[in-house]
Amino acid sequence: MGDTKDGPPKGKKDSKKSENLRKDLPITAHEQTIEEVAAEFNTSTSRGLTAAQVVESRAKHGENRLTPPKVKPWWMLYIEQYTNFFSLLLIAGGILCFIAYGIDQSDASNLYLGVVLLVVVFISSTFAYFQEAKSQAIMNGFKEMVPKECKVIRDGAANIVNPAELVPGDLVEFQEGDQVPADIRVIDSYNLKVDNASLTGESEACERSAVLIAPSHGHGGGGGGDVEEGGKGRAKVPAIEATNLIFYTTMVANGHGKGIVVGTGDNTVMGQIAGLTGETTGDSDPPIVREVNRFITIISTIAITIGVVFLGVGIGMGVMTVVQALVFAISVIVAVVPEGLLVTLTVALALTAKRMHNKNVLVKNLQSVETLGCTTVIASDKTGTLTQNRMTVQHCWYDNQLFDVPSARNAPELTQMMSDPAKKGMHGWSLFDPNNGSFKMLQRIATLCNNSDFIVQDKFDPGAPLLDLEKEALKSDFNLLNLATTGDASESGLIKAVQLLEDVKKYRARYPKLFEIKFNSTNKYQIGIHDQTVDGDNRPLLVMKGAPERVWAAASKILINGQEVPKTPEWEAKFNTAYEGLGALGERVLGFAYRHLDGLPHNHPWTDQPAANFPVSELVFCGLFSLIDPPRLGVPEAVETCKKASIKVFMVTGDHPITAKAIAQQIGILDDEVLQRGKGRVVTGDDIRVLMDIADEGKRQSAWDDILLKNEQIVFARVTPAHKLLIVENNQRLKRVVAVTGDGVNDAPALKKGDIGISMGIAGKAVSKEAADMILMDDNFASIVNGVEEGRLIFDNLKKSIMYTLTSKVPELSPFLLWVIAGIPLATTTILILAIDLGTDMIPAISFAYETREADIMCRPPRNAHTDHLVNLKLLLFTYLHIGVMQAAAGWYGYFVAMNDYGYTPWVLPGLGHKWDDLPLLCRIGDGQTKECGFGCGTTDYAGIQNAVISAARLNSTSAAAMVSATAGFCGDGCQGLNSYNNASDPFSEFAPGGAGFRGFAAGVGAVCARTCNWYLGLSAQQKSYYLAEAANPNSAERLILTPADVTQFDIFCGSAFNANVSATFGFPGRGQGDSKEEAVAGAVYWWRAAVQAQPNMKYQKNALSQGQTAYFVAVVMNKVIAALISKTRKLSLFQQGVKNNRFMLFGFVFEACLVVLISYVPPLNVVFSTGPLAGLHWLCGIPWFLLCFLYDETRKAAMRRSPGGWVERLTYW
Questions:
Q1: pLDDT tens profile 126-160
Q2: Considering only the top CATH level, what class is 811-900+1105-1212?
Q3: Which of these is catalytic: 24, 178, 183, 381?
Q4: Which of 148, 276, 627, 945 is the most buried (most CB within 10 A)?
Q5: Looking at the record, which segments are called Disordered (predicted)?
């Protein structure tokens, strides 16, 4: 058929490609005969392809390379990190800061704020970029796996070429140690074994030959048979299990062979895995990221809503200039959004990651730390994770009895294990008897008919002395099981089992080897002939080890209780019962037999070509050894902990179903009780293939649901990488949070797809480590459970940290809202807000990462990542309306006290805020309306005022009554209110002792006017003319700054007649005085003195506000301390939890106290933060609210403990 112009939409094509990647590759070469394969690829089985065919095939199939995935340029990926809503909001705030600074450069705080906001965005975005960039590294890991060279036959000649040059149809030779350069159909082999662990997870190397053999339903030596080659439809044997195929990047572990290339590049099994990994993305962001994004969306919505609403109110009321509107918008963003949240989150996760590293868990992706805490399913690889990744002898059969063989690490441990003769193994079988004659022969054969050796040379220091294994084994801290060996896994397991009984090296030296027939896939046994002269027997000893049915077939007798008895049908039935019983446990079973070769001398010309010139039948069958990759220590307990924590553990392995089931039962993944109820199941790769053949997606998902929802415990066996990915995806479809473990290349797609991928640090391949979020440094499943506990703990503690952080949002936001609504001068600034969010709050917020866990943390179900949120409505209401309101009240109390002490009583502040920084403020007296500013009284009797002032100045008295009497003559219009210091009447009620000085106007009236002699005398003629002209304009905002009447008053009070009669002492009575302006306390400008005041009005105004803002800041930070303490527990009393258990939090309190002192008293910081040195009493304003907050929360928690589930808990338990 020709190509059509139109095709399916791109999305559908991509979907179809993705679905095909999850199915088995359409490989049929293993079903075909060698001649059919050669014909299909038009190649010769002896001469290979011609040069012309190679060129033609390469043009059609391309090079033998994995196609690199499409990746975004690093700069585009980096820019994308700045486009999330949180970053855009802060960027907008930063830009507004720079605009505001550009319009009014007199206020540098906007510049500082803009820089800080952009720095916060830069740090968080850069961190996110490095997380994203790891995908490229994953694909680079595949590149490292490509073979370096291979041997190919073309035109009948052998050549060494780069594997990238191979094409389908090439004839390739390979031998032990080679990396397979493509997917190859084997056409000839000798003792060929291939290590497929990276693809299937199988512990042992797999035999491969030119013959396709059906999978064994037993589990020992054979049991399989040749299958009919050819056939239509799906292969009877999946390609991944085919015994006549070897796959790209796997290793040839033994033997040699030749084959035809049937798949290259992307059309290989490894290419499929790379394709899956490249196109696979996580189901979504990690749960903690989703929670933070959700929270930011809520907070940002609140910020924008408040900003827009009150911006409209401010503009509608005509109280905002353009700059003020920008400042307000910025301030709302800064006040509502917790800028330090991402930094706090990152640091807290990093601290947890450090703690997990001490528990052998290396965290690559910090955000995944919490994911473990809400994990509902752990899809765990078997080999090396649940098991020890080493074949170990478990049982033996001799004298018609099954025995348990304990796995001892050293001689003392073996002695201790064997000390109790009545001790039983896992299945109730007795321990073997090392002194039994039949076992001793079994031990002899296992030692001699074995080519495995211990590696006793230090690979890191070749010059170091060889390990004295016999001596080392006597030490109680020595671990023989971890010692590296040569040879295959089964032989390694055998010598580790017998070494502690007698040193293998010395044993073999006593019985020298005369001849050997190595194990091969045709015979399925190994033979050794040994000299046993040391025992006084000159007959050569033939020993055989291999597949039990082959060894049994070669025997005519059986060794029972040291006696050789004839093999009978009854004995054969007993043998089959033992063999099948051990096979049913998932164990690899080996048979052992021997024969004394009578009549053959030691120097016999031993050979097996073309046939053995010595007898290989009529043997004496000795017994069986069975091996299995045993469970890791601590794994059963870890699985049990997972059950208590309501976490499902699924075993997902490429190993045999019988083996997988046996291990699962040993470690508790499959319970007998669950199996009896029909709620446990072993699902095979074939079962999944049947599911994938269902065309209707709805029915296919329903079939998956039947498996995943109707079974409590599941083991997946003989699965491919694509199957493992499907298992993860379908669990995620059911809203489960899936943790995936793996160590092989085959695991990379699932590791990347899972909510959290966990690779093995020891056995893990580079690709799997790159794809994972965490790496188990000890390859131990039990370490995952430790991680789950840490993940749950960090979620609890993050919730407490956020509760603490959010309590300051109301005190941070309320000053800006009251500035718009009531015109109260700002009680805080955006820079001071950042000083709280990124300064004083930071260490206490991070310190929650050090809080200890709750007792039931691993006994409760995982949190529902879709409904149980980090921040919920109750938490917001509690932080805002309960603790937040009390913190705001503390701040306002401190602010009003400080402002009052500077002459700005609370009732005069409304309305003054909008013009505070622009010009001298107008009077607000009587009914609160703006009045013409005089000197405390509205009288026009200027002469009377002058006389009264001079009369009062001449008094040498501390009597307030005398002062009131001296001024009563002209203040008869009721403007003599009580002042805020000594409750005496204004305007002339405060004075220095001895009549040294007095105040020229009343608190809240003249003080607010704040037009001093210095200001008046400093006006130029042009400025006076301007203000006087404005006074004549009824619509001018500046009409009351200087009226003609004011000029007359200023001329009187600032003239020489007044100054000549007033003392030159500076200062406030009761608040410090001085004989010079330099010694006077801040604010002395408000006192009439003999000399003209030197400090301008606007400076005092600024100083007064800085004191109020500093007092507000101090009171809020003080109450943040109690907020941290009450956040330590959700129900328990603080007295129960204690304070000393978190020393880092105590350090945080010291840190924030030091920071507050620095911000208050260090002059450069005063400039940056608009603060000032705070009077001693003003530091204490927050204490009453501190105590109130503590008593309130303790009462609330006590009510919850007394009435669980009551209305207090329902409304306030966050």
A1: 766 765 554 445 445 545 556 678 899 999 888 88
A2: mainly alpha
A3: 381
A4: 627
A5: 1-25
